[in-house]
Amino acid sequence: MKKLLTFVLLVMLACLFLDKIGGSDMHMQFNGDDVDGPLEWLFGLVFAGGGLLIAAIAVVCATIVAGVVLAGVGVVLIAAVVLCVVLALALSTPVLLPLLIPVAIVWLIVSRNRKQAQARQHSL
Q1: pTM listed for this prediction
Q2: d(CA 71, CA 63)
Q3: Distance between CA 113 and CA 105 in Å, rounded?
Q4: Are 18 and 38 in contact (CB under 8 A)?
Q5: 45 and 15 in contact (C-beta within 8 Å)?
Q6: What is the dihedral of CA 72, 74, 79, 83, to 10 degrees?
Q7: Residue 30 forms beta bridges with which residues?
Q8: Tens digit of pLDDT for each residue in 59-102?
Q9: What CA–CA distances, in Å, run from 31 to 28, 34, 35?
């Protein structure tokens, strides 16, 4: 950070001491008077930096708003997908009934074996 700050200060000092940096026909007026020489460049740098700062703040605010809006839309979309899945399962229950009977039998056998194993551990 110190190196960047030093570099920026050196560039600004160079702008102050040099009459013109590059060829430009830009004319600046401040309170009706023409601003010329190094002061013109200093004002240009300050105003351009201020514009970039305002633009950066606007982009950050727009990003935050977009993130909040898209997060809300994402939650609504996930809820809609879950609702569609539950609805599809509810509508397909009669079709899935022949598959659910063997699953229920296996589930009962496993739970009975688990209860018997727990009963043996507690009796020891």
Answers
A1: 0.39
A2: 12
A3: 12
A4: yes
A5: yes
A6: 140
A7: 33
A8: 999 988 988 888 888 888 899 999 998 898 888 777 777 777 88
A9: 10, 8, 9
8 A C-beta contact, residue 26 and residue 44: yes
Contact 12, 45 (CB under 8 A): yes
CA-CA distance, 71 to 31, in Å (whole number)?
A: 48
Query: And the tokens for 2?
Result: 């110190």
* Full 3-state SS string of 33-101: EEECCHHHHHHHHHHHHHHHHHHHHHHHHHHHHHHHHHHHHHHHHHHHHHHHHHHHHHHCHHHHHHHHH
Confidence of residue 107 (pLDDT cuts 50, 70, 90): very high
